[in-house]
């Protein structure tokens, strides 16, 4: 898409230059022929301050001729700018091709395809691989050679980040991730059990406190009704911490 747009822009620029050059030559020829009284001047009805301007067409034709001739002097400068743009575009296209070729040969290098150690043999091996590549065989040999040299320079990087090492590192990280997930699941399970035990303990302590309160209330009630029944509970000082003795007393005399 970018190449098609650049081609259309290039064609329209060339067409515009050609049309302008032809128009400049034509108006110059017309002006020269009119100055030699071979052709007539352009007639242009023009009024200024209510009065008609004589020979207005001649002045306009001469002015347009001078303007066209003056602009023609800028065409070479614009041409050089267009040449620079074209060379820059070609350089960008070449860099894209080199990048694509380098990506292919670097991927092959990471897959441990090349085994030559010397620089000459290594570059030649990579260059042969690029020439046999189905997507890169149409590129220029100079571009393929540059990509092969770049791949040879970065072969240590390809060794460090080889596909086998990357796959092993990914498997290791995958195992670590699985271990972390298993640990998190067990941790969540332990948290659930801990929460359940705490809730259970709270309920047991609550029931114990309720039972103890009921027992204390029952003892207090028994202490209140035992004297009325003629039963008194005496606890000696020595036996206070060990045992208690219930002594039956005679009932109180009726008043």
Automatic annotation (TrEMBL):
Keyword Transmembrane helix: yes
Key words of the record: Membrane, Transmembrane, Transmembrane helix
Domain of life where this protein originates: Bacteria
Transmembrane segments: 12-36, 56-75
Protein name as it appears in the record: DNA repair protein
Annotated organism of origin: Sulfitobacter pontiacus
């Amino acid at each position: 898409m970018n190449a098609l747009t650049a081609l259309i822009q290039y064609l329209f620029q060339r067409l515009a230059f050609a049309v302008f050059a032809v128009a400049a030559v034509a108006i110059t020829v017309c002006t020269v022929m009119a100055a030699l009284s071979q052709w007539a001047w352009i007639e242009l009805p023009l009024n200024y301050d209510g009065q008609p301007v004589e020979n207005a067409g001649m002045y306009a034709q001469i002015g347009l001729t001078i303007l066209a001739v003056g602009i023609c002097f800028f065409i070479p400068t614009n041409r050089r700018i267009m040449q620079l743009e074209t060379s820059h575009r070609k350089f960008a296209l070449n860099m894209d091709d080199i990048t694509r070729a380098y990506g292919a040969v670097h991927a092959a290098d990471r897959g441990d395809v090349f085994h030559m150690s010397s620089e000459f043999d290594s570059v030649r091996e990579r260059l042969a691989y690029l020439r046999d590549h189905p997507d890169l065989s149409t590129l220029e040999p100079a571009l393929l050679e540059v990509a092969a040299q770049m791949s040879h320079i970065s072969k240590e990087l390809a060794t460090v980040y080889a596909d086998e090492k990357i796959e092993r590192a990914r498997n290791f990280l995958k195992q670590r991730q699985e271990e972390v997930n298993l640990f998190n699941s067990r941790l969540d399970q332990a948290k659930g059990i801990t929460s359940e035990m705490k809730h259970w303990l709270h309920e047991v302590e609550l029931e114990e406190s309720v039972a103890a309160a009921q027992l204390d209330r029952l003892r207090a009630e028994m202490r209140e009704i035992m004297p009325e029944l003629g039963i008194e509970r005496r606890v000696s000082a020595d036996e206070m911490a060990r045992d208690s003795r219930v002594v039956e007393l005679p009932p109180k005399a009726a008043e």
